[in-house]
Specification:
Length: about 525
């Protein structure tokens, strides 16, 4: 008989999602307050004075293990910070809604002291996701990140490090997604990061020269060897992600857990049309980057190029050309049209753009690209954007789109609660209307709902039936002769033999002899 351990109600109340994520709370005596440090099994925060949790054996019937679901995945707020945490896709890894990226900045644009200040401020405000790659600044970004982590001495279990593998060097075997480069490239990244493992390793674009089975087997190998905990894709198509998932299920391998994609107000097709379906079907999450469109959505350029812009750095001239192109100028004009909406929400255009990216339930985290602490603090303020006001506004360039009604994992039109539905929400709105305590959404008059009539299919006119064709009637004698000719003759119908008068008196030959 299978036996599982069920905790008491006191243990469940004491161990919330924040305790499991942030660790035990400090006790009144300066210790951690948990019995784990003293070798006992009391829940964190009990301090040994509360009621002890007892293990109660619960008998369950034998049979195949069933997959249990604990309801929709929810976000939680960190203790002492306003940072919110979500699951990486439908895995159990909890990541902060905002992460810190090292593209362009670490090892090239900013100094090591500024990089350390950025990581310190981000870590103190609840950011636990730090992203890098082997190609960033030819490996200098990973070295800078590794030196900062080593000097800070933070607990390895308190933060998440991700890296990307594809471009490792100039040799033909130092780039791509072959089994050789995936394993050797990850070894090189761990050496530069001065870590024993990374939490997530990304395949930094698809490789048409490598079979999908080889890629999935190599990623499964590095996870089984303890070099990484999860693996994901970066800038892959939906068909390629689905192919990797199918190969993993076919050969009992580990499928990708997330996709890293570009997502902002001017790049939204992939995140809104492809990845949500993958999230609901196979549980692939999304870590998005460039929420400000490489600095365009800041309303600070105003048609000019500042000296501190990353497009002026050697090797990133394409960013400058992108901003100064015709499309870039049109995008800057559209950003200026967003200023009244941002002022109405009480935030900046950058905070509005980041909060808009966080509204999707398929987005697990948004990577920030900042070069100083002021930009970092401004971007972290996107979590304080008011929810659901205004409920729906047309974008200045004529496209209807909802403005940030979260940041949160869901976009429900009704305040959800256990057992609550639209009818309960409407009843609550009526009570608030009677008491004069309506929300801004409820104060906005809504047009009456029009019931759409169901159109019946058009029927074709019925054609008149043709009279049935009848065979000419025949005589009864003819019908009787035809029926007799069809069936086999029987003894009753055969004619009787006439007796031979010459043989009536003759005896058989045997009687004569």
């Amino acid at each position: 008989m299978q036996v599982s351990i069920a905790c008491t109600e006191q243990n469940l109340r004491s161990r919330s999602s924040e305790d499991r994520l942030c660790g035990p709370r400090p006790g009144p005596g300066g210790g951690n307050g948990s019995a784990a440090a003293s070798g006992h099994g009391n829940p964190p925060g009990a301090g040994g004075s509360g009621p002890k949790a007892r293990a109660v054996p619960v008998a369950r019937p034998l049979g195949p293990a069933a997959v249990t679901h604990c309801g929709p995945l929810r976000e939680s707020t960190g203790r002492g910070t306003s940072m919110k945490y979500r699951n990486l896709g439908k895995s159990g890894l909890r990541v902060s809604c905002l992460g810190l990226g090292t593209w362009v900045t670490f090892g090239s644009q900013i100094s090591d002291e500024m990089a350390e200040n950025l990581m310190t401020v981000a870590y103190e405000h609840g950011v636990n996701l730090f992203d890098t790659a082997e190609v960033y600044a030819a490996g200098k970004a990973e070295r800078t990140l590794g030196n900062i982590l080593k000097s800070k001495g933070w607990r390895r279990s308190s933060y998440i490090i991700t890296t990307k593998i594809f471009w490792g060097g100039q040799a033909e075997t130092e780039r791509g997604l072959s089994r050789k480069h995936i394993i050797e490239g990850l070894w090189g990244s761990l050496d530069r990061l001065q870590l024993g493992y990374v939490d997530i390793v990304f395949a930094n674009r698809s490789d048409p020269n490598s079979p999908m089975e080889e890629i999935v087997r190599a990623m499964t190998f590095v996870i089984n060897q303890g070099l990484a905990l999860y693996w994901g894709t970066s800038r892959w198509g939906a068909a390629e992600i689905m192919e990797a998932y199918s190969v993993a299920r076919q050969f009992n391998l580990i499928p990708p857990a997330c996709e890293q994609a570009e997502y902002h107000l001017f790049q939204r097709d992939k995140m809104e049309s492809q990845l949500p379906e993958l999230y609901h079907k196979i549980g692939v999450g999304s870590v998005t980057w460039s929420p400000l469109a490489c600095g365009i959505i800041t309303s600070k350029h105003e048609g000019r190029m500042p000296d501190t812009y990353r497009g002026t750095i050697k090797g990133y001239q394409w960013l400058k050309d992108k901003v100064q192109s015709e499309d870039g100028k049109k995008q800057q004009a559209k950003v200026m049209d967003l200023l009244p909406i941002a002022h109405q929400l009480g935030c900046t255009v950058a905070q509005l753009s980041i909060a808009w990216c966080l509204r999707s339930e398929a987005v697990s985290s948004v990577l920030l690209e900042v070069s100083n602490t002021d930009q970092l603090m401004e971007n972290l303020g996107a979590l304080q954007v008011r929810r659901g006001y205004p409920p729906l506004q047309p974008l200045p360039w004529g496209r209807q789109a909802p403005l940030p009604d979260v940041p949160g994992p869901t976009r429900s039109a009704f305040p959800r609660s256990p057992g609550a539905g639209p009818a309960d929400a409407a009843k609550g709105a009526g009570d608030r209307r009677a008491a004069g305590k309506q929300t801004p959404q409820e104060m906005t008059p809504l047009p009456p709902a029009r019931r759409r009539r169901r159109r019946r299919p058009r029927r074709l006119p019925r054609l008149p039936r043709a009279p049935p064709q009848t065979a000419p009637r025949s005589s009864p004698g003819l019908r009787r002769s035809r029926s007799r000719s069809r069936r086999a003759p029987s003894e009753a119908t055969l004619p009787a033999r006439r007796p031979d008068p010459a043989r009536q008196g003759a005896l058989p030959l045997r009687m004569i002899l």
